[in-house]
Amino acid sequence: MFYRCKNCGGNVTYHPEKKKMICESCGSEESQQEIPQKKIHICSNCGGQIETTEYTLACRCPYCQTFHILEDRMEGEYRPRLLLPFCLDRHHAAEKLRETFAGKMFLPSNFCAASSLESMEGIYVPFWMYDFHSHIYFEGEGDRVRTWREGDYEVTETRVYRLIRDFEVDYDKIPVDASVAMEDGMMDLLEPYQYGELDDFTPEYLSGFQADIYEQNSETLRPRAEEKADGFSEGYLAEENAGYAMVRPFTDRKENRVEDSFFAFLPVWKYIYRYNGKEYPFYVNGQTGKVIGVPPVSLARVFGMSAALFAVIFFFLKMLCYLLEVL
Ligand SMILES: [Zn+2]
Ligand SMILES: [Zn+2]
After folding, report:
1. What mean pLDDT is predicted for residues 61-79?
2. Which of 28, 155, 193, 237 fits a 20 to 30 Å CA distance from 128?
3. pLDDT tens by residue, 92-113
4. Ligand 2 centroid to 64 CA: how many Å?
5. Burial track 283-298 (b if 16+ CB lie within 10 A, e otherwise)
6. The pLDDT value given to residue 227
7. CA 39 from chain center: how many Å?
């Protein structure tokens, strides 16, 4: 399906900064009418075949550029419960990219050029979120050491304490990236997101963006969420045991019970920069503007700089010779 403008027939998409549905052609606000898919994965605007993978949920018609949401992929367990709407539009995401790399040396001259930034895509990345009730039980020994001088002697006193830590923590919405298409670890780098702004899912939010349904289910990804929870629990435990010079654990048990898990979408702007036949991906957190990516080094600029430097050195050497000759 897609959203057609009642006034002009244009495509109505979600505008992140106005937080409204806006017609791309006439600028009307909230003028959308839902046009369902007549035939599966055929554009109901122009009749063209929509290119999809088995995970595509929202995409653009390659012929008429209308943004579609494939309603047959949005049913049952594939319907996300929550979504974090984009806060940054394409223009502001591009600005964040430019700002981040503005001072970098040896960047290719067309990096972040307006024309290549046009290809930036807003993507909703599928996530599983887990609520855990965790029980942490720790038993061990801790040393407290005191040293002082008595005449010619240095006295060291070591007191050994028995440590028992038994506490419970409730974790809320621990996120794990459920898309295989995103590079591993990239989403962890793009965090944090302000999860307080998660909203109930409605398909309007997807209009104007790309989205895939999840490729890995909740059970498959649960160990990764538990790993994150255990990491936080370890932090709390370390705080509790911070006053001891040495800690020897006997029992260190963390049990995580899943209270709830649900499918959600998080917003990312993706920019692929092509340089010397290679692709350099950049990602901008669609909510906070945090930028991740490593730009290529322009050899032409490195050589240009070295040549300039060489010319300067050569000039000074020349001057020095000249001065020596004069003397
Ligand atoms: Zn319109
Ligand atoms: Zn079309």
Report:
1. 91
2. 237
3. 999 998 888 887 767 787 777 7
4. 4
5. bbbbbbbbbbbebbeb
6. 95
7. 34
E strand or H helix at 323, and its extent? Answer: helix 299-326
Q: pLDDT digit string (tens) for 180-225?
A: 777 767 888 888 899 999 999 999 999 999 999 998 899 999 999 9
Identify which ligand lies nearest to the alpha carbon of 46: 2
Averaged over 160-184, what is the pLDDT?
90
Are the CB atoms for 199 and 85 separated by under 8 Å? yes
Of 38-47, 53-62, 290-299, the least confident: 290-299
pTM above 0.85, yes or no: no
Dihedral sign for Cα 179, 180, 181, 184, please.
positive
Ligand nearest to the CA of 4: 1
CA distances to 92, 118, 291, 310 from 101, in Å:
15, 17, 10, 26
Cα of 63 vs centre of ligand 1, distance in Å, is 19
Question: 264, 274, 107, 121: which is closest to 199 by C-alpha?
Answer: 264
**Ligand 2: centre distance to CA 38 (Å):** 13
**What's the CA-to-centroid distance between 28 and ligand 1, angstroms?**
5
Helix (H, G, I), strand (E, B) or coil at 82: strand
Q: Which one of the ligands is nearest to 50 CA?
A: 2
The residue written with tokens 């790993």 in the block is: 227
Closest ligand by atom to 8 CA: 1
Cα 139 to averaged position of ligand 2 atoms, centre (Å): 64
Residues near ion ligand 1 (CB < 5 Å) are 5, 7-8, 10, 23, 25-26, 28
Beta bridge partners of 137: 166, 253
Distance 32 CA to ligand 1 centre (A): 8
Q: Is 44 exposed, middle or buried (0-12, 13-18, 19+ CB in 10 A)?
A: middle
**How far is ligand 1, taken at its centre, from the CA of residue 128, in Å?**
36
Contacts of 311 (CB under 8 A, 6+ apart): none
